[in-house]
Specification:
With about 450 residues, the protein is mainly α. It has 3 domains: about 90 residues, Orthogonal Bundle (Fumarase C, Chain B, domain 1); about 230 residues, Fumarase/aspartase (Central domain) (Fumarase C, Chain A, domain 2); about 100 residues, Orthogonal Bundle (Ribonucleotide Reductase Protein R1, domain 1). Strands 1-2 form a two-stranded antiparallel sheet. Strands 3-4 form a two-stranded parallel ribbon. Strand 3, helix 9 and strand 4 form a beta-alpha-beta unit. Helix 3 packs across helix 9. The radius of gyration is 31 Å and the shape is elongated. The relative contact order is 0.10.
Length: about 450
């Protein structure tokens, strides 16, 4: 096949070089953006009398025909073409003749691919944002549904203090809200048009870059033509956002794995999102959660790979930059797949509130409240802390918990302790006393839910 860039050279490359150089197998997914961008470019060329209005109309109609046929499957991609840009131009030229050859006036594949990638990732960011909102809404619904379920809160994976499950779930919602904010902020910097920068230095044609930018929904144009074609910050930034998102999903997935284990039994995952064992018939494995956790490293790898590719590149465009798309596409695909599995998996999750409460009762997680009780009786906190620790040790020796430790044992450690110690260290009372802003008491959790609903317009 004749190369569109033939001239300075014969255009003859080896089959191995053609395959190594080709990107159509992965950049063909941007065909809608490529064709839409070309239609805007043709309109601009006609408006500026760089080509005639009739030629512009013919180009736009021809491009629309190609788009329609690709959408319907009537036209398929030619793997012999070097990239999606050459494929579209080749088909257009076959259909329109010399008029088709005028489409590439006042642009280069350098600014064209930057345009396509920005437009494509803009849509991906929007789609991922929608999924994040859905996951945050699911977690919020689970928090509302289980508003009063008490569980042990953990530090160092050791039972620490009693909290509401709803409070714990909302911690992940807050992470997701930050992910949404980061994604929206990233999209703003992404939404700048590079088209018209050409190869790197701009063009001698009297173009209207702002017109093209407006037609394609951009907020403005890249102000430096070299930066326009060499910038891939928007890819890296998006992948950075997705890496943080995946870290949050991985932490959540890890807790689902733990909580669904026989040792915890805090939750039950739907059979639709678990698998069995080929040899152990009793097993119910949280494979989907484990895969989310595992795929996090994949997105991290995509980010580090592109950062490494870009770190030594001189300005402006270099062929190395073709490596951006597979990495950023994979990061987007992986994040969407993980969100797509997490949403229904968490929607169908069943909370075992009784098991959570029993775990909270057997971990001495009200020891801090016992110390606070003694502080209320006039003891310094450090003294109260020591007495509370001694009483926990006494419970361990007696195989009981603080709630069932006899009053005479309490009083042997401090005469300040009376019958009122028992309601003071009751777990639900301990939760309700955590009434500081952002705390785990019911009123605080309800306030958080209201905030989330307002943010997400639920």
């Amino acid at each position: 096949m004749a190369k569109l860039w033939a001239g300075r050279t014969s255009g003859e490359t080896s089959a191995a070089a053609d395959d190594f150089n080709s990107s159509i197998r992965f950049d063909s997914r941007m065909y809608r953006q490529d064709i839409t961008g070309s239609m805007a470019h043709a309109a601009m060329l006609g408006a500026r009398s760089i080509i005639t209005p009739a030629e512009a109309e013919a180009l736009i109609a021809g491009l629309q025909g190609i788009l329609d046929e690709l959408d319907s499957g009537a036209l398929t991609f030619d793997p012999a073409c070097e990239d999606i840009h050459m494929f579209v131009e080749q088909v257009l030229t076959e259909r329109l003749g010399d008029v088709g050859k005028k489409l590439h006036t006042a642009r280069s594949r350098n600014d064209q691919v930057a345009l396509d990638t920005r437009m494509y990732l803009r849509e991906e960011a929007d789609a991922i944002g929608t999924q994040i909102r859905e996951l945050a809404a699911v977690l919020t619904r689970q928090a509302e549904k289980n508003i009063d379920a008490v569980m042990p809160g953990y530090t160092h994976l050791q039972r620490a203090q009693p909290i509401l499950l709803s409070h714990h779930l909302l911690a992940y919602v807050m992470m997701l809200l930050r992910d949404l904010d980061r994604l929206a902020d990233c999209r703003k910097r992404m939404n700048v048009s590079p088209i018209g920068a050409c190869a790197l230095a701009g063009t001698s044609y009297d173009t209207d870059r702002e017109m093209e930018a407006r037609r394609l929904g951009f907020d403005g144009i890249a102000l430096n033509s070299i930066d326009a074609v060499s910038d891939r910050d928007f890819c890296v930034e998006l992948m950075g956002c997705l890496s943080l998102l995946m870290m949050h999903l991985s932490r959540l997935a890890e807790e689902l794995v733990l909580w669904s284990s026989w040792e915890f039994r805090f939750i039950t995952l739907s059979d639709a999102f678990t698998t069995g064992s080929s040899i152990m018939p009793q097993k119910k494995n949280p494979d989907m959660a484990e895969l989310v956790r595992g795929k996090t490293g994949r997105v991290y790898g995509d980010l580090i790979g592109l950062l490494t590719t870009l770190k030594g590149l001189p300005l402006a465009y270099n062929k190395d930059m073709q490596e951006d798309k597979e990495a950023v596409f994979d990061a987007c695909d992986t994040a969407k797949a993980c969100l797509g599995i997490c949403i229904p998996m968490l929607e169908g999750m069943t909370v075992q509130a009784d098991n959570m409460l029993q775990a909270a009762r057997t971990g001495f997680i009200n020891a801090t409240d016992l110390a606070d009780y003694l502080v209320g009786k006039g003891l310094p906190f450090r003294t109260a802390y020591k007495i509370s620790g001694e009483l926990v040790a006494e419970c361990i020796r007696r195989s009981c918990v603080l709630e069932t430790l006899p009053l005479e044992v309490y009083r042997a450690h401090s005469e300040l302790i009376g019958e009122d110690v028992y309601p003071a260290i009751e777990l639900k009372a301990c939760v309700e006393k955590r009434s500081s802003a952002g705390g785990t008491c019911r009123a605080s959790v309800l306030s958080q839910i209201a905030y989330v609903k307002e943010k997400l317009s639920l």
